[in-house]
Amino acid sequence: MTVFDKGVFLDGCGLKFDREVILNQDAVYLFYLNHIDWFHDVFLDLNTEGFSYGVLSNGYFYKIGVKSNRIERIVISSEKEIKKRVKAVIAYDGTEFSGFQVQKKDRSVQGEIEKILSECHNQETKIHGASRTDAGVHAKRQVIHFDTDKKDTIDKWKYYFNRRLPKDIFVKSVEFVHPLFHSRFDVLRKEYRYLINIGEYNPLKRNYEWNVSNLDLDILSKELHSIIGCFDFTSFSKGEKDSKIRTIYNAYIIRHGDTIELIFEGDGFLRYMIRLMVFALVKISKKELRASMTDIINLKSRKYSTHLAPACGLYLYDVEYSK
């Protein structure tokens, strides 16, 4: 058993026990002390960032989130008859979708998958995705999860999906996961890539890249590198009400002939954030905008970030969770 002192809990940590929500270090630590026997079988590595999952000594399911070597979040469920939770990695061509998120009238990735699942379960079945990609945005590795009471194997689930889903969606892998795993809230980092063709326009790739000429790649690389770090990205957000602070772990360019990939790795991204940044990066690299990315970020204003790069060049490339 790992015994924790108060300092192990972050000042702003939270705990959710079924529907009860407890906030701040003092209250969470008091709950822990009052139920310390529950945690008898919990062995937590505070050097490992992310979530650990398991079962408490009383049979309750738990997950604990660690950030900066301290406990940030605890979730406990007393529900004993929990359905199986299924995690699936999917890829899709976003060209003919209104986006990932379900829409009332327009076609969406979520809508297509939920239609198949609801037919399978003979009742409405919802899925959750790691990222709500916009209309026209593609995904190489999107992650979803859903709950089921079916006894099918993971191989049967994968076969069933790929036999029934439209050809612009493909399920790459399926696995059973802990009942408290969440494809969106448990993400450690995401990787997006943006494809730009700096050569001759190719009509066959018009839905999969942005054709741009006269880019100074040295300037582009320098400006892209300048966004690495933890910043308030208000200047590159649109319609966000919550915190605009995000951490970019890495940002760089890979070139394949006339095609360049802009890679963005971070803990999360605001809506339209990458497309707003790519447009600004292109304008700066074409010497059509004198402000730098650092200037624009520090301004905390949409003055220099009014346009979006086309959705067709953006790909959700990978989503990473705790090992």
Could you characterize what this model shows?
The protein has 323 residues and is α+β, with helices and mostly antiparallel strands. The protein has three domains: 6-77, Nuclear Transport Factor 2, Chain: A (Roll), CATH 3.10.450.50; 84-177, Pseudouridine synthase I, catalytic domain, N-terminal subdomain (Alpha-Beta Plaits), CATH 3.30.70; 189-320, Alpha-Beta Plaits, CATH 3.30.70.660. The chain contains six helices and 15 strands. Strands 6, 7, 8, 9, 10, 11, 12, 13, 14 and 15 form a ten-stranded mixed β-sheet that branches. The longest helix is centred in the middle third of the chain and has 13 residues, at 109-121. The radius of gyration is 22 Å and the shape is globular. 30% of the residues are buried. The model has no long low-confidence stretch (mean pLDDT 95).
Short description:
This protein is of the alpha+beta class. It has six helices and 15 strands.
Distance separating the two termini: 21 Å
Low-confidence stretches: none
CATH topology of the largest domain: Alpha-Beta Plaits
CATH homologous superfamily assignment of the largest domain: Pseudouridine synthase I, catalytic domain, C-terminal subdomain
State the secondary-structure class: alpha+beta
Helix content: 10-25%
Mean pLDDT: 95
Number of strands: 15
Number of DSSP helical runs:
6
The CATH level-2 architecture of the largest domain is identified as: 2-Layer Sandwich
CA-based shape: globular
Largest sheet: 10 strands, mixed
CATH secondary-structure class of the largest domain: Alpha Beta
Quote the beta fraction. 25-35%
- Quaternary structure type: single chain
Tell me the Rg in angstroms.
22 Å
Element pattern in H and E? EEHEEEEHEEHEEEHEEEHHE
Number of domains: 3
